[in-house]
Amino acid sequence: DAPITSEFTPWPPGLARAYRAAGYWRGEPFSAWLRALAGQFGPRPALLGHALGPGGQPGGWVTRTYADLDAAASGYAAALAARGLRAGDRVILHLPNSPDVFEVLLGLLRLGARPILALAAHRAAELTAFATQAHARALITGGHPDAQRAARAVQTAHPDTLVLTVGDPDAALPLTPADAAAWTEPAAQPGVSSQGAGDVALYQLSGGSTGTPKLIPRTHDDYLYSIRASAELCGLTPDTVFLAALPATHNFTLTSPGAFGTLHAGGTVVTAPGPAPDVCAALIERCGVTHVALVPSALLLWLRAPQFTPARPGSTLRVVQVGGAPLAPDVARQVPQRLGAALQQVFGMAEGLVNYVRPGSAGDVTYGTQGRPISPHDEILIVDDEDRPVPDGTPGHLLTRGPYTIRGYFRAPEHNARAFTPDGYYRTGDIVTRRPDGHLIVQGRHKDQINRGGEKIAAEEIEHALLGHPRVFQAALIGLPDPWLGERTCAVVQPRVDPDEHASQALPDACALTLELRRYLLEQGFAAFKLPDRVEVLPTLPRTPFGKVDKPALRARYAPTPALSP
Ligand code: J2J
């Protein structure tokens, strides 16, 4: 096992004091936050949706009030404690969208265990990597056969990791909430808080650009600040009904302002299994949904769906938030007319910084920018390749630090040295311009990551995996423009040549290799969204003068010519 190096990089004490003095960090952990919400909004509906059922299939429709949710959190905390889990334990949370996700998540937070927020699409490769890095004590998953298979693979690699299954009473270790009364808050020791709000509450996941996915430690103080400030900035109220259609534990869906922001305002969260327009249209009508968060690829589907276009008279939908990937201004402009709701652009990242277009902004801001930071204490630098600030309007690298942006990834000292400046700015990897009024426009990316419809793929992770295939000598994963997803992936492979057979050997057929490599990556346990959409074969990969694979050259070679693109 790797030695424990740096688990958490704190903010400098002077800044931490300033963030407390400004009222951003309130010293309140999630458990107390939930207790206060239950006191304030007790009988109001907090969660609606299909519970998780046996086999990972949707179970019965449930309505949970704030009081129910608080009780469920205590019940899960007690049940987890009965399984031997303790405050500080890291636990992988791997559940499909359902009210259960939030109940279990809040139960873990009440216990003081630290959830690692896996995506439901993750499989054995990702879950095992999290378990390995974090020495996870447990994996909480659903009964779907794919999830159970992935869980067994995690357990094979880490026999000590407990697998607990939600929604499936026949599972080996089913997880159901105990009686809330079974939970007693750990006695506060004088001078020591059992759950300091400055401690790590949970781990978000980085979209990443390296071979192993990085964990993002978020504290109670910093995460709750971003949630509260987001809810206020977006004007959420107890009448807000938020549809969680994207993966529930993704930073956008959970906190911008998302499900937690909605709970903070006393509103109602409705869970959808995914963003499919037919299912979501039915939920909007059934539950009176007012707000939804979408990635651009999902928005494109909604804009063309007969359920939404033309906009329904009397529809309750008021705000469609779009973020996670670039949104073309001409698509943005279609939202009010076609969906009958306002557009709000959101440009955020699990590492922290979130930018919003403020509600009611002028058209050029609403449709043509990705907003400005939440906090007056968010520091923004836009710099050239030598870290020198560029003037407004000139594209540059976006660097940021502030009251809810991390100072370091979990146990990744070498990567941290590259991903942060010596004075603590996070290098986002995004290329942006700033308007004189402070609004940011995302222009591109300077990180070896592919944004496939909002789902982030670290090229290196898949390149490494492909090298394990017997026919692959070198591999480069690139993104190519796609009208629906924004980008799709292409693996360019330099095949392994048998030295006995000489160079006269024909190159393998790209079509056959596509199927073979996709199957191989599935067998290796990668999430389906990471499988290359296309595979190309070259006798040698082009190199830069420094010997790195020349990805711009590969993109130019395989991208559709502009005249042919839609
Ligand atoms: C272009 N690129 C964007 C946007 C994110 C709110 C919203 C999104 C995320 C998210 C999030 C973009 N236009 N509007 O965590 O709280 C790309 C950038 C960014 C990366 C972060 C939130 N909004 N992006 O997408 O951690 O490249 O968070 O650095 O998944 O997505 O990805 P992620």
Automatic annotation (TrEMBL):
Protein keywords: Ligase
Domain AMP-binding enzyme C-terminal: 461-548
Sequence ranges assigned to domain AMP-dependent synthetase/ligase in this UniProt record: 40-410
PROSITE patterns: AMP_BINDING
Source organism superkingdom: Bacteria
GO molecular function, one term: ligase activity
Protein name according to UniProt: 2,3-dihydroxybenzoate-AMP ligase
Organism field: Deinococcus sedimenti
Gene expressing this chain: dhbE
